[in-house]
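Example (one chain per record):
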Amino acid sequence: MTDTPRDGRANPFDLSDTIVAEATVSGRGALAIIRLAGPDAHTIARAAVSAWPHQPRQSVLSTVHDAGGNVLDQSIVIRYDAPASFTGENAVEIITHGGLVVPATVLGALIARGARLAQRGEFTRRALLNGKLDILQAEATGDLIAADSRAAQRVALRQLDGGLSRRVLALRDEMIGLEALIAYDIDFPEEDDGPIAPARIHDATESLLTGLGSLLATARAGELVRQGAIVVLAGAPNVGKSSLFNALVGERRAIVTDVPGTTRDAIEAVIDTPTVPLRLVDTAGLRDTADVVERLGVEVSESYLARAAVVLACADNIESAATVGKALAASSAAVIGVRTKRDVGPPSPAELVSIGKELGTPSVVVVSAETGEGLDDLVREIERVVAAGALPPDADAPLLTRERHRHAVTHALDEVRAFRHAWRSEALPAPVAAVHLREAITALEELIGAVDVEDVLDEVFRRFCVGK
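Predicted structure:
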């Protein structure tokens, strides 16, 4: 992989530069970290500090001064020697006091001595170019920083550890093995062992298709981890949807009144669960109405229902269950029945059975937004339904979390299918059919960055923060 642009322009990611950036958020805080990496990192930092670590990964207390000798701060200095650093280069971290002025002046002193301000994601990009990470691990670094749920954190850590990379590499190796079988059969058809048995090629191809299909099937789970599973509260007006929403979220987000039609638009909140984040959506009551504004709210509700992973069909009696049951007839989402207002009066077993029949689901959870009864059971049931519908059986299985991943694996799968068709039907000569295998291998190599993919790198690091 090269860092030289194809268009001949000056490269903003020149590895011969020494780069510097503040690795912590700028603003009021106890500490800030200034990160320096590149061929002259030690020389530049040593000129700016009074004390220098004698050993790598050793920290020393030092004063930092500018080119004029003015003291800027009393800081901790840590030295890293290539290749044992995050980027694989000589590197230095200077831990300064926080705030706006101190880190900025220390940063300025290092730039004045020859460092260049780093671009977004440039430290991680250098780690990739120096072989410390592959593209999937680099993406995981950004995902870990951006994680807003425990599920996203867990998936990013597995990807950073190389779980997805190893899965992709194993599939690529299988493809190379199959390609080698085809090449041997083409080049050495008269060897003593005879031609390659068709069953052997068939089995290898089917194994590849199964592996690629299984990996592609994780894309839905990856989407849920990154964006959250949409869980829509649906029901007739005044059955307690907004009260339940507020109780699940733990704060007052929706207006709760006895006036039908109060919720005119959808209100969202995220509940972080160990499996996937739940995007809880409180919607307008489902009913026929002549009120123009309320009708718009009902249309928004119907839009969310079409995209929902789970619908909480809320009802406080059999009649309201029948109303929401009719509205959900065309929905393809999983439905969990919710008998609300447990505190007003517990339902009889017969009523629960009738509510379940009206909603078309045997799963009916009885809750009270006022007392909190049944809320934990409801969240566990939501998690169970989401996991059953989208999450892989192996909780530690690597997931495809981005559209780039899904596109690459889909392309590889299509190419292997095309090879199978051409080889079985003998529609193409074996050398031509094998081109499909080479294309599939290339798709997976681009996914992990084993080939030159400069445009992909630009897209991966465009959203990174400076200093990472």
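Caption: Residues 81 and 432 are 49 Å apart (CA to CA).
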